[in-house]
Design brief:
2 domains, two-stranded parallel ribbon
């Protein structure tokens, strides 16, 4: 995922700014953490979107220190297998809706979940990045898929 994202940011001339933001959020002193978290979100949106709809200004409460703590814990759970152990406890049907332009590799989502879950479906949306509800070419398909899955 990171290699794909960085390659896309490099093509836009934004790789160095991404690295600065990541380092600013992972250092021992979280100076301007909220600023860097917001910038990471903006940069990720640029790299992770296929054909985004125009962005609307959204007031968001960003708390970089909380984000970093949660992200560190999630990364540890992924690394030591706790996350997949929790997935195995799910008894309900699970559907993963994934964009074909999402920098998170589709196989890295589909294969482990299909292996662990009895009632699992994987739907790959064409011309779609990481946030299908914000993608011009995938939004309608995403919402229709979501309606069908919930029904």
């Amino acid at each position: 995922m990171n290699a794909t994202r960085l390659a896309r940011l490099r093509a836009l001339g934004l790789e160095d700014e991404w690295q600065t933001a990541v380092q600013s959020l992972s250092g021992p002193q979280l100076t301007q953490a909220d600023h860097w978290l917001a910038r990471l979100g903006e940069l990720a949106a640029l790299a992770d979107s296929y054909d985004p709809l125009p962005s609307e200004s959204r007031d968001r409460l960003l708390q970089g220190n909380i984000f970093q703590g949660v992200w560190d814990a999630a990364a540890a759970w992924r690394a030591d297998g706790r996350l997949l152990a929790l997935v195995q406890q799910l008894a309900c049907p699970v559907t993963a809706i994934h964009g074909d332009f999402d920098p998170h590799p589709a196989a890295g989502v589909q294969q482990p979940l299909a292996r662990l879950l009895k009632n699992f479906r994987f739907i790959l949306l064409k011309n779609c990045g990481h946030t299908p509800w914000l993608e011009r070419q995938a939004r309608d398909t995403f919402y229709e898929t979501l309606r069908q899955e919930i029904a």
